[in-house]
């Protein structure tokens, strides 16, 4: 069923167009037979050059009919029989092919939980013994431009299967349920622009959303248009899935402009999106011990839910410590974890009592350059196995097994802060702004309202400013129309509001690695 809501205002300043398609969600009960049938910154030219997207032209265009051609990145090639072993852009079609290939391996099962608005299957994979008493849910690519975490999770699944078939018994006791790409439409837009949509209806929907932002100038410059699409975060209907869950305070959530494709756009009602309903259905139908939610930006771990119970938060902290030890990512201090109204982690804590850790893999501009993929993989290759091991033996036994210093762990937990190397990383901006609750500058029409008066939930989240030297080096000049309204980046930083695209960012270092330098970004689509 498709519902369209259109709102248009004067002078284009409040123009918006949102078309919502809700697809019926089918229940996955058995493996089907046969084949398994992008935030951004005001300095879009700098960002485009960094992540390699777009043709790099600054030619102006006069109308939507004359928009530039969207140039996708080079796609991944098969290595060792799988696309996820390659180094190029990983697509939904490649994911589908890889899932079909994995079906030949014992201990793997897969099926569809339903479809996205544009008709893509929402795949659900099962790794290990379905009757195992312990179960872990892994969710990846809730945000379109963060698609690099999908091949990471796919490699993790293959690694678990290889260990099992080499004699490891872990998957007899722990079963993984994996949603490897829960927002495939958003991925398609980030990778291919409007042409990524398969159906004309959804092409129209995305074009309507783009038109609603025309006053921001996306049709006036080729780079800006391409860059906007490359940074697409939400679903094809413009909803941020991580604000679409039925948590306390959802009705009063200030999503800045209640406008499709906008930062924190929560949707017309809770669980309005088929992608959200798939996640809710799976969690309600299966008794999971814990949830790992893979995102992209910051090399940090979010574990604390301010509205959650002490028991759930304590357990989430334990899981985060396991992931930290395996990946080297920093734990975000409790006071900076954010309220996350409408988020998956908050819903799990409040409504289901299930511990959850949000893993922000990688650091830099998003989508991350494919040259960074191997580094991200190396940090995350053992995360799922270690999580299963810790769940099996218990946290205390696991800590003893790993030789952790119990006194140091207790001291860190009591302080609620990152220490040692993590403190240095945080000082460089890696743990600067909670990815779940990014505050960003609005486009011209509402910049002054949405930057100076940040959402109430943001103020409560403890979003902190970057170190003065970092802020001075990394604040990117706001769009001309924004600056004209008196919203200066320096002034914003001085007020302690970090406006970051998904968390910390960095310039790419030698060999494609990234670390350290925070990019303070402002964009309507984050």
Strand line-up across the major sheet: 3-4-6-5-7-10-8-9
- Gap between N and C termini: 27 Å
Q: Tell me how many strands there are.
A: 10
**Distinct helical segment count:** 20
Run of helices and strands: EEHHEEEHHEHHHHEEHEHEHHHHHHHHHH
Most strands sheet = 8 strands, mixed
Question: Structurally, how many domains make up the residues?
Answer: 1
Question: What is the CATH third-level topology name?
Answer: Aminopeptidase
**Mean of pLDDT:** 73
Shape: globular
Unreliable spans are: 1-64, 417-526
- Give the percentage of residues in beta strands: 5-15%
Q: What's the alpha carbon Rg, rounded to whole Å?
A: 22 Å
**What is the subunit organization of this protein?**
single chain
Helix content: 25-40%
* CATH domain class name: Alpha Beta
Q: What would you say the CATH architecture is?
A: 3-Layer(aba) Sandwich
Description:
- It is a single chain.
- The protein is of the alpha/beta class.
- The protein has one domain: Aminopeptidase, CATH 3.40.630.10.
- Helices cover 35% and strands 11% of the residues.
- The chain has 20 helices and 10 strands.
- Strands 3-4-6-5-7-10-8-9 form an 8-stranded mixed sheet, with helices on both faces. A two-stranded antiparallel ribbon has the order 1-2.
